[in-house]
Amino acid sequence: MSLLAQLYALWWLLLTAIFVLYLTGKYRKYNRLRHFNGPFGTGWSELWHSCVILSFHSHLAYKEVNDKYGPIARVGPNELVTSSPELLAHMNAVRSQYTRSYWFNTATRVEPGKDHVFSQIDEEKHTKRRQQMAAGYSGKENLSLEPDIDGRLNELLNLIRSKYISTTAGSKPMDLARKVQYFTLDVISTIGFGEAFGDLQADTDLNDYIKSGEQGLSVVAISAALGLTKYLQWPPIARLLGPSEKDQSGFGKMMGVARKLIDSRLEKSTEGRSDMLASFIHHGLSKEELFSEAVLQVLAGSDTTATAIRSAMLYLIAHPRVYYRLQAEVDAAVHSGAAPIATSIVQDTTLRNLPYLQAVVREGLRIFPPVTDVVPKKVPKGGDRVTVEGKQYYLPGSTDISYNAWGVHHDKAMFGEDADYFRPERWLPEENKTNEDKLTAMRRTTEMIFGYGKYQCLGKSIAWLEITKVVFEFMRHFDWALAQPDNPWKSTNYMGIFVQEQMWVLVSERD
What we know:
The longest helix is centred in the middle third of the chain and has 32 residues, at 287-318. The mean pLDDT is 89. The strands form 4 sheets. The chain has a 5-stranded mixed β-sheet, sandwiched between helices. The chain has one domain (33-509): CATH 1.10.630.10. 55% of the residues lie in helices and 10% in strands. It is α+β, with helices and mostly antiparallel strands.
């Protein structure tokens, strides 16, 4: 046999060996999770999962999967998704051995190779960073937190009153989705940097921060769906394709502004200061860590809180019974003196004592969770045995298990047969005839909207404060109607974060 013929034979032998090894690897992956059912092909390929993420309505697809295949279902060769609150609590508990998964969290890095509190997958470093930041987020070392929010809310109310009041003489449609995001951006920049971006006063997306943020979310979704994260975050490619702090607008501009503000603050003493940045500096965050966390605040803190406010207002306007009952509670608080006069913003101490407002906000978060990211957790080495809904499951080590937010918060077994409908009274035990244990379980479940245990959102209390204040003041000062009830908004889900626009409303001044 000639040398050429021998090489040819070896070539085909090599190809055959590679193909056999490929099929063997595929079969092993399939076999590990063969006891879990899921859509066709998910045991062999990531195609279904990639298509779901790229559909930009992944929250609905995950719910359909768990509704059809049970509380734990397969969505990829090594991926499961669950709608079980008990399993989620088990995985996220403070002493849990489950860890974060690379493919999802790392895709959210602001800069290649540099982690913030959400992208960090090293458990020890993550715990340390949370401890360093907790006081700043809680308000214990950020005494100007509520006044800062009040200042931005006054600007929002003044913007609506000065430019967007509709009367019998004419309508002035307002895109509530945009105005609310101007508010949340200005709030987060004020409490995070000490200086508002100024969108509310300008009534525009200054420097295209919102536009570039949406573009960034789409890039994160596409890179994660196609498995491109490790390539796009390779420094040479990131420098070539990513934003630059020298950009004159967009995300790069925002990064540049953040860098300058942080540099300026580091040159001054933090003695006597009580804002969030001062707290972070006091607890030992480095210059680069401050930068990553500050930019994360803007990206994560503005979109999610804006979505919560929009959805609460949308469901309120669409349910007149709830709308007028909440308005009556707000008016009663004002007339009794519990809330301040109209020129001042209601305080948190008053909001906490308004049961129907609290029920409306909680129900708004439940019916339309503002964050549906799957935040997968990796099963510890050696695997784990869990009991879900009375049935035992074995979870192989290194399996990724994702969170099905829509399924969890629309679960009829937990919230009743009308779980797909907006009814704040389900949170009022005296009206819903719900025993205390059941109500506690419901509340604990909805708390998962903000994460749970060692992964709970640090900004939870800030978000709740913003939402309740805005809803109260909106109901106190204005009457609301949908300008286009047949098409109330345009909503897109970028791997768990909603981008919403064109929520046209008609606002009239209350007597």
